[in-house]
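Residues determine shape. Take a concrete instance:
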Amino acid sequence: MEGGVPEADMSAFRECLSLSWKNPYVLRLAFSAGIGGLLFGYDTGVISGALLYIKDEFKAVDRKTWLQEAIVSTAIAGAIIGASVGGWINDRFGRKKGIVIADTLFFIGSVIMAAASSPAILIVGRVFVGIGVGMASMASPLYISEASPTRVRGALVSLNSFLITGGQFLSYLINLAFTKAPGTWRWMLGVAAVPALLQIVLMLTLPESPRWLYRKGKEEEAKSILKKIYPPHEVEGEIQALKESVDMEIKEAESSEKINIVKLLRTSAVRRGLYAGVGLLIFQQFVGINTVMYYSPTIVQLAGFASNRTALLLSLITAGLNAFGSILSIYFIDKTGRKKLALISLCGVVFSLALLTAAFRESEIHSPMVSAIQSSQFNNNNTCPDYKTALNSAEWTCMTCLKASPSCGYCAADDKLLPGACLIANVDTKKMCGNDHRAWYTTGCPSKYGWAALIGLALYIIFFSPGMGTVPWVVNSEIYPLRYRGVCGGIASTTVWISNLIVAESFLSLTEAIGTAWTFMLFGIVAIVAIFFVIVFVPETKGVSMEEVEKMLEQRSVQFKFWEKRDSGSEKH
């Protein structure tokens, strides 16, 4: 899933580098736990490339769009389960054990996927990996935040988010590395077992979170860990601060038992906070970001680039831009402000999706024709059955050929834009087409507008990542009153996973049902609605204390002049 970078300015990163030099133990804690983020990112990215080769090996997957969506989305379903039980495991057994359990599940899932003999077994492996990812998504940042010095906590938690985008980038590199290896996708999915095993070993050498230990009454053990994390002159102050914080947390937990959904919605500040926070996260998913992350190579093939290797290479650029955008967001989030940055981001997303819509629509309209002469050059038994019996075969294009049943493929002419052959899609016809040094298409068609689609895809990531990739997470961390933060955060997290699942499960079906162009147009319409939503419902929380945010939400939830800082005084609007 696409994540955000927690708020941390550049001074915090400079402080972090200085502290790491003086006390490497802190960085070792953060990096060891942060491998969970790497696994999260790796799983998000690797399936997009592996899917190309899974389709080649399992013909049922190639023929059935729902199977492709199931292979992608069952990991998300597993993550929902993992995230829902992860909180309980973290509190009951500790953050360290939570991470180790998540890694063990990830390791088991990776081995099952690498050895899968059928799509069903592959899906079982994806569920295991998903549960591990869901648990790690909660345990890793929690462990890092509780085992980090206060002044660099934001920067070290951001390390986890950098490792998520870094894991996505790494997955594309590994996908490329194994394109020529026997077993291709098995290596791509199986290699994830290595960092999972590494993290298990590293975590076994590290202590439990001092905060968890203190809450469980193991005060001396917690103090000994704090002495390793903080300089001697700060230890006593931090121990006292931890004691006060844990006491307050216990009191809040006792009172939060009385909180129910009706009470939440009756409290105006909480209700409006949920509108803004949860709404932002829903729009973050439904403008299509995770379709790009999960299906990037497939989208590149839909744009007219037939080669699996070429599709992976071009998708690597997308992953790199996403990682770069995550770094940019650290600078812009406080300089520009949350609301303004979200609006700039969404405007860019609308433009990018409009370009993608136009590029794919032009590709569909100007799809190369099917030539009876070209098709007859291959054995008649290899010609697409629907094409042979069609009354309007002279009107057939590459797009018509790819939609035929049983599954057919398009063998392009030497000049890809000239008429080509429509053949039954199987290993033999693919090989025959390749022997003539001609490109074989089963996902998209040759197009002179393919590069325009790639530019649109790159612009989409450039605009999305620094803004809508980050802002919803930052706003959700700031907008809820302290007492309700745990409950509201749980609602927000569940919303993200469910929205992510819906989008991942429906993207390929949508492209089949209404076409790629109209699918991206649908995302564009959602992005336009999101712009109005941000203007109307989302307050600017930059430089505003938690108390002032609560006052703003109590007063009103609408502000059209988003460039003006909202008054947080007592004046009612």
Summary: Residues 207 and 244 are 22 Å apart (CA to CA). The chain has three domains: 10-205, 256-366+446-553, 368-434.
